[in-house]
Structures are given as C-alpha cells and as structure tokens.
Amino acid sequence: MKWRDEGIIISTKKHGDKNLIISLFTQNHGRRKGLAKLVSNKFQISNLLDVEWNARLPENLGFFKCELIESPLHHFFHNRLKNIAIISFASILEKVLPEGESYSLLYGHFLHFIHIMKQDNEMWQGHYIDLELSLLTQLGFNLDLSKCAVTGTTENLKFISPKTGRAVSTAVGISYADKLFPFPQILYDIYNHNIQNSYSYSEFQSGLKITGYFLNKYLLLQLSVKLPEARSLMLTETFCSF
Predict the structure, then answer these.
(1) Which parts of the chain are coiled coil (predicted)?
(2) pTM
(3) Most buried among 37, 138, 174, 186, using CB within 10 Å?
C-alpha cells in the first residue's frame, strides 16, 4: 500500500532513538500518521512536507519518506503569540479530525493561514478565528451569523445564541442579553469577508471565546477531550501587549 501527498506537520512524538511518529494534515488524505527517520529541524510543527507513505496494509501505521518543502517557523520564531496560535490550531486538528478523511478545503485554508502568519502584521488574528470557523463548518457545524434567527433581519445583529450558533438582533435579544453572547465586530467582519488589518487584543479574545465555546460544544465534548493548553494561553492577559 502506497500513496504520495503533501502535508503540514501537526504533531510529533519520539519513537525509540532514531524514529518519530509524525501526524500530518495532508492535502488529499486528511490526517495521517506514520513513522519517519529522526532528522533535526525537518519535523517542526507547521513544516510543509512532500511525503510518500508505505505500509503492508491500509490500517498499519506505515512509514513516511519525507522531503521538506518549506519551514515557515523562522518567519515568526520570535513572536510567541504566533507560535502559540500555530500550535493551538495544529493541536485542535490532531484532537478532532477523523483519520484518513480528506478535508482539502480546510487544508487549503490552513496553508493560507500559515502564509499570512509569515507576514509582519497583525491581520493573522482575524484569520485565526476564521480558521476555527472553517473547521466547524467542514465538520458539519456551521454557525449562521448572516441574519437574526427570529426576525430574519440582517440589521443590528448584536448577539449570538449559545444554543443555536445563530445571530440575534438587538430588538429581539436585549431582553435576554445575559443569556446570549455579544456579537463581536471581528466575527461580524469575518463572516462578511471583510477582515481588517488589525483588531484590539480584547476583540480578538472575544472572538476566541465564542469559537472556543462552539468547538467545545460540537466537537471536543463529544470526543471527551479538551481544548489544547496553547489555545487557553491566548485568552490570558499575559499576551495582551503582543
């Protein structure tokens, strides 16, 4: 059994003295694991590899023959928050993606996000939240933030229902504000394909809290796993100055 693909490293684990078990999010084969010879610097999270996978049977762990296409880490090595964001999303993929199922649109989205991370600006924050929304959508849990769930209006959308993941207008939601999420501008912009160059860190955190809630509700709790520690770090005040 053999196939060839390209993939992004989302986790690694040492296996003996000379091998690693690496987990890749591949373009056409989804999340796949395999053994690889331990080579320094080739197997960092976010590295893009050209791989050939070999195994006697499809259900076997198999072995990866790898060639490095790109190592983007040096572009943001000194930005701790960017490093944490990459590790966060890679860890979420490792936890929730079923093995061997193709998600080519999500793969392209993740690759685009890594490209944005290499640029010297803060536009990546909106794209990170967009990436989590894309993950929810690709796994069948699309949030509907286009119109009010009750009236259908597209104006004055100020809340999001934690029960349905749908937007709620000011007129409808004001009486239940304590039971609804505020609808942050960053999510509104993302949903309307109008991501800005930068947002305040508190605005970024507001978006993270909402996508994190739905990731937990729809995916992680069903799998009895938790959001990765790296993602929790992005919600601490420690990083508000980055």
Answers:
(1) none
(2) 0.92
(3) 186
Tokens of 78: 């000194």
**Residue 241 confidence (pLDDT):** 44
CB-count exposure of residue 36 (10 Å: 0-12, 13-18, 19+): buried
* Phi-psi label, residue 129: left if phi above 0, alpha if psi -120 to 50, beta otherwise: alpha
Domains and CATH numbers, the chain: 2-71 (2.40.50.140), 75-239 (1.20.1440.120)
Residue 161: both structure tokens together:
């229902």
Residues recorded for the chain: 242
Q: Which amino acid is at 119?
A: Q
Predicted confidence (pLDDT) per residue in 21-37, tens digit: 999 999 999 999 999 98
C-beta of residue 72 within 8 angstroms of C-beta of residue 48: yes
User: For residues 140 and 178, is the Cβ–Cβ distance under 8 A?
Assistant: no
How far apart (Å, rounded) are the C-alpha atoms in residues 182 and 161?
Answer: 9
End-to-end CA distance of the chain: 47
Residue that has been written with the tokens 């160059």 in this structure: 197
